Amino acid sequence: MKYSYKDYKHLLRLLAIFLLGVGVFLIARALFTPASFGEFGHYRGDSLRENMGFAAEYAGMAACKKCHEAVYTKKSKSKHKGLSCETCHGPALRHSLEPKKEKIVKPGSKDLCHLCHSINSVRRKDFPQVDFKKHNPGEDCLACHDSHDPL
Amino acid sequence: MKYNRKEFLKIAGKFVLIGGFAKILKANKLFAAVAGKPVNKEYDIKSNLWGYGIDISKCIGCGRCVDACKKENNVPKEPFFFRTWVERYGILENGEVKVDSPNGGLNGFTDKYKDEKLVKKYFVPKICNHCEHPPCVQVCPVGATYTTPDGVTLVDRKYCIGCRYCIQACPYGARYLHPKLHVADKCSLCYHRITKGLLPACVEVCPVKARIVGNLKDPNSEIKKFLNANDIQVLKPHLGTKPKIYYKGMDKEIF
Amino acid sequence: MDEIIRVLFEYLGKVQGFIYPNEIELHWSILIVLYPFITGLVAGAFILASLERVFNVKEVKPTYRLALLTALAFLLIAPMPLNIHLGHPERALEILFTPHLSSAMAIFGFVYIWYLMVVLVVEIWLDYRKDIVILAQSEKGIKKYIYQAMALWSYNISPEALELDDKIGKFVTIIGVPSAFLLHGYVGFIFGSIKANPWWSSPLMPVIFIFSAMVSGIALVMLIYMIVSWLRKVVIDMNCLDTIGRYLLYAFIIDFSLETLDLIHRFYESNEAFGALAMLMSGKLHISLLIVQIALGTLVPITLLSIIQLIKVKPEIRKPMYFSAGMLTLIGIFAMRWNVVIGGQLFSKSFRGFTTYKLELIGKEGLMTAAALIILPVIILAVLIYLFPPFAKETGE
Questions:
Q1: What is the number of structural domains in chain B?
Q2: Looking at the predicted complex, does its ipTM rise above 0.85?
């Protein structure tokens, strides 16, 4: 052995500092890695549950039917049978939970009808389209058409 | 005293309301999950694999899906943040392709091309493709975006560091940085809804059934029937991301 | 929030063609341009230092320590632009605690710590240990304690101990060369591995990044050597400067050949994205790519350096030639980083249109922040030079 302890004492000290650093890192990693990490894969398992638990806004048609059966039945026999109530009325989950407190939107025809039924050269031809400038301009669509049973 | 009585009535009223709902909850599982506990314990993650179909030939470009998505998922209303959007394509006689998506289609579309002669035209809804090999998940440095066992790509809002590498890696422009939360955000296929038996908001409100969703592991599901009955294409198949958003009626100009 | 929305509405009016609606926001700003620029300087400066130590190029010895200190000063700042840019900087350590190993970015923390601690700090410490011990014994007051701590309270500078230091130092430098390649090669891989982005996606990207890093680092140390010599009013070692200039030219020729190859390949393949990329090159990147990066930042310095090789030029003229070649090189490499990072985000992944990027003067990701991040390493370097004079050896000889 060419070198004695005193020749590499400083190197051992440096090594000790590095090992200390690695140790601190390993302890910090153990402390700060979330408990559910790796439950399903390389992510927090809790995140999956959080994503499941986000609050909804739309109730779904089944919820509407519970109280508004008559309108529902009428609509399901009409040309608008494919539409969900919330397509026009907007999100209704809060309303379905607290019907008195949370009111839903009663949409005016000006806002909605044209979105689907205005003439658009890109829209498919077999879909009913109306020229809103010529077809009784200024009139409320709902004056003649019942949106729950149009035509 | 008067106040107390009022308070009592209020609480009692709530109690009755909850009691009443409890009955409905038992009767209707879908509803139970929404009104009751935030996580549906009965959902079996292993027996599901979510797939989503878009029928381009049906879409009329009303933009209700975009609107519903923003309301359901608290997506910022400004025209730079979309979990879903609708593109309009018009192909002229000389082969020129016109594409636009004003405000993501949220306000519908004006009849911009009424004076043009379009030989082909279609509206194309877009969402996150929930790829089988998602490049966004591959590049996330910390594991803040991931694919669930039932095939949905999600973001962990509490863990995302906001480096935006996933946004760069997504070939479809499906991701954005949430301007308030400062984390990546994207379509979750309404994971909080589909795991409770509800439809994603966009599917719920689509008036022409251009969007369908279902379990790919169930041979009788609507999505499986859709895949079997139609010629199906996915977006940018050459990239090998294997999207689980399946398009019917897709033209070569769409990517 | 309102500020970003205001900027985005401004961008909205400048969108050309069709882009996906989420693509209006350009996500990686000038800070992410700085990041590969700074790490490139680090890697390049280290390679220059290793020329002397590993490859036995004795002529560049006067710059050996200067190059190491330069690498250290810039490496200390390298993660700052990244951290400032994060949406949640307070979560940055997740990248070390739960690194997602399929992500090129996740490896950053480890490559960085390896390079900073194991390579640079150890190499500099071993090289300076004799000086530190002498200073620890000769200095007074607080400085004495600082040097004592730096010596780890071990003051043995016997010939045996120093010989051992030198052996280990050489070993560390040998590890350091591939580490420097790794440090910058992986930065190139961060971009080169993104298949969604045809402007980035290229297996040549890591190699181009390594050679452009060498070019920028060598140019930087050359400039610093000239400026420091001028400030100290000492004669520049022309033999050293000529050698550095020669190696700069070699690295530059390889770098430019690779970049040209990449460009030719893109033109020849003309894949689906080529139309958009060609429009990008001739349009939005016209000035920063064709004029600044290629003409001013590459062809001019290569010409200047070649002239010195081909014909005899007087030292009084060679100096300004080297100086201007070095400055233009740095500007050119910065433009190259800009064109990669910003250029790669200007076109839509639908290949049908372009968004825009406006560099703000102030703000978190503005020009002022960027300027501060470039000046900061220079200040750190000045402090390092003060604490560890890199010139002790030459004056002693």
A1: 2
A2: yes
